[in-house]
Amino acid sequence: MTAGSGPVIGIVGNDVPRQIVLASGALPFRITGLWEAPGDRAWLDLLGAADPVAATVAEELSDADVDGIVVSNDSEAHLRLFYVLRATGSRVPLHLVDLPRRDSAGSRRFLRHQFTALARFCGGVTGRTPDAQSLHDAAVAEAALGEELERLRARRRAHPPRCSGAQALEATLAAMRVPPPVAADIIRAAGGEDVPARRRVHMTGSDHPDARAYAALEAAGLIVVSEDHGTGDGAWLGVSAAGGSVTETVDRLIDAHFARIPASTTGSGADRARTTRSLAAASGADVAVSLIRDLDESPLWDVVDQRDALAADGIELHVADHVRPGEVVGRVSAMAAELSAGRASR
Amino acid sequence: MTRSPRLDSAVAATTYQKEWFARTSAAARAGAPLALANADAPHEILRALDIPYVVNQWWSSIISAKRAGPASLAAVAALGLPDDSRQYDVLPLGAQLLPSDEAPWGGLPEPRFAIAERGGDVTHKIFEQWGRRPGTETFLLSRTGAVPAPEGWWDIVADEWDAVFGAERIDLLRDEIVELTHWLAERTGRGLDLAVLAGILDLANQQAEWNRRTRALLAQARPLPVPVTDVIPAVMVPQWHRGTAWAVQAAERLHDEVAARIDAGDAVHPRERRRLMWIGRGLWSDLDMYRAFQDEFDAVFVWSMYLAIAADGYLRRGPDPLRTLAARFVGLTDLLYVPPMSSSWYAKEALAHGVDGVVHLVADDTPGSALITAALEEQGVPVLELRGSNADPRATGGVRERIASFLRERVPVS
Q: Could you tell me which of A43, A215, B249, B341 has the fewest CB atoms within 10 Å of its CB?
């Protein structure tokens, strides 16, 4: 992975501003794990009662050819993974990014420290500390990717859609692992042909580390037109900040952090419900689906609020919870059979 | 000799707590503000503003001990919320929905304030639910990750807390404590007097010093002179009154009583041949369990985290009371659960207390449990891991049988 392409920094979680990593001359390489794999027993034991996908992230990290690792404190599972990697001795430099959720003067000061420390860490890996120019260049590249992502969202929202959910998610996940220009090409190439009219689904609940669940839903005659989780439309991807100086750019990145889609693990139930309703309405969803992995607890707490908020727009929320490794395709297929029988209202 | 009556200090503490709760409840029902605060929230601010508070986890232990846990969890489920998520933290929310004659001690009056730090993925959502109850508002503090995380923290944390927790983390929490103070002042009209807060911190430090002396006595004593089930309330009730003269006196009283029992040659179990450590939260629904292995196995639980963390975890000295208070809470839970801080500490305590085996209750919100177990096993101390919430009887069935097997198979007599 690194041969001929410069340093690579493995990214765990959704709280890392790619612009800073890119400005250091490294490639941010998001590692998301797998839905279906059971996870290595040793990692599961070390992580305890955490979202089992974290164990597959750990396995992927073990095999990945990366020069450094940055972990987000955006969920308990990721924070545990950071602690375990630190305690067991990471083979490459390891760093935690920790972003408070409440916008306040104290939080902003802490965030400045966090982003400065991230820049210092990345600079230590690459030998090039981000400066105003490299941050600007990274912002331009990331902004171009952001524009392609917006076009992809428009294709998904079209009637009929011009990109399937699985295609969009696969492209988004792939884009998190390549330089921005290549990522923009991948996003641009996703979809482009009309998808036959089907019931339109908005996805919420757990993050999707791969597109298996989407593929299973769509194989059963549905189409996923939007989502609010952190590996799809909620990802910190294509988000950038322009500023005339390092300080100004960091301040704009802080603004961007507070403007992002609230994650289930960090957002309130009320915020999550508002977001789910807003995005589902914008995409013209007929129905919403929450897939929640076993031991990924926070989405369970969102369900009542989301169901009530979506009901105001006549959208039903269907939930499959406590989904264990190995169950997702079966659980999704059973749900899809029921949903496909419903009427496409839009 | 064996002395059967309970520790006077434990009886006095529980009696005081019941009277305090009755007094506080009556005042709250008459309109006085009451706060519900998580264990890791900066209680001293509430004390300085003369706002009484009930600690969420303590109230959970009462609910659990009074066998109201299942009904409380059922009430949570009836709202459509999960009953298998963070049960220990959520029990009070469920108990609030029970009829007063089914709730322990007549139930908790509706708190005016609910205050917690954002621990894990769910605490903020539980406290969001509290904030939706009529008359209750929620304030959430940040919980940052444990960076740095030094081993041997117990020797330096009282004074060199910037090095243990990181100055930026402490600064963030300090700022948020100031915000909390303003938020409370807006609602109560009560302003913070820093001199009052400094006095409260000083009393809390005196209490911690007594707890250190008591822990040192118990680590050295052979056989164990007082039951752990008495030490827990004798330490924890005063902990929730931290910063008061009564709490300091209660800690001193426990120390003196332990010393006297050691001098008198008292033993919980004179034939003590296996010394056990219980890591994790208390099994409140079955406190008899802690004494269940004495007759058959000559095995005595000599350690719980409650006295030990009260001895090592709370002491903080510094010139700025707000920052010193932040340093007390910024990583308190990390000391218990985050490796290598936690693992090195448990190993140190196991060796100091001469334990022969460890029962490790691994809850769903405690990271690094396997590394704690590994650190102990590396020291030659066998460990039995039990997984499940201490607040959910469904998760801890068969505990006694498993411990008995562990003792037979892995814990030789010393």
A: B249
Q: What is the pLDDT of residues A244-254, one digit of tens each?
A: 999 999 999 99
Integer Cα distance of A306 and A204 in angstroms: 9
| Contacts B370 to A, Cβ<8 Å | 45-46, 48
State whether A106 and B175 contact (CB < 8 Å): yes
Radius of gyration of chain A (CA): 19
Task: Give the DSSP H/E element, type plus range, for residue B56.
Answer: helix B56-65
Going by the DSSP 8-state scheme, the letter that residue B66 receives in this structure is T
Q: Where are the beta strands (DSSP E) in B203-356?
A: 274-279, 299-303
Contact residues on chain A for B76, CB-CB shorter than 8 A: none
Does the structure show a pLDDT above 90 at B364?
A: no
Q: What one-character DSSP code corresponds to residue B391?
A: T
Q: What is the pLDDT of residue B388?
A: 72
pLDDT of residue B365: 61
pTM listed for this prediction: 0.95
Give me the helices (H) in B240-286, please: 245-263
Structure-token pair, residue B361: 């209750």
The Cβ of residue B295 has, within 10 Å, a number of other Cβ atoms equal to 10
At A37, the pLDDT band (50, 70, 90 cuts) reads confident
Residue B396: band (very low, low, confident or very high) from pLDDT cuts 50, 70, 90:
low
CA distance B100 to chain A (A): 26
**Degrees, nearest 5: CA angle B293-B89-B406:** 20
Locate B55 and state its tokens: 């600690």
Q: What number is the average pLDDT over the span B373-402? A: 83
CA torsion A210-A214-A220-A222 (nearest 10°) is -170
Q: Tens of pLDDT along A128-170?
A: 999 999 999 999 999 999 999 999 999 999 999 999 999 999 9
Tell me, what's the pLDDT at A186?
Answer: 98
DSSP states along A59-110: HHHHH---SEEEEE-SSHHHHHHHHHHHHH--SS-EEEE---SS-SHHHHHH
Nearest to A105 among B80, B149, B175 (CB): B175
Burial B360-386 (b: 16+ CB within 10 A, else e): bbbbbbbbbbbbbbbbbeeeebbbbbb
Q: Please write the tens of the pLDDT for every residue from A144-153.
A: 999 999 999 9
Q: Which residues of B touch A98 (CB under 8 A)?
A: 144-145, 147
Number of continuous H segments (helices) and E segments (strands) in chain A: 13, 8
CA angle, corner A263, sides to A262 and A264, nearest 5?
Answer: 120
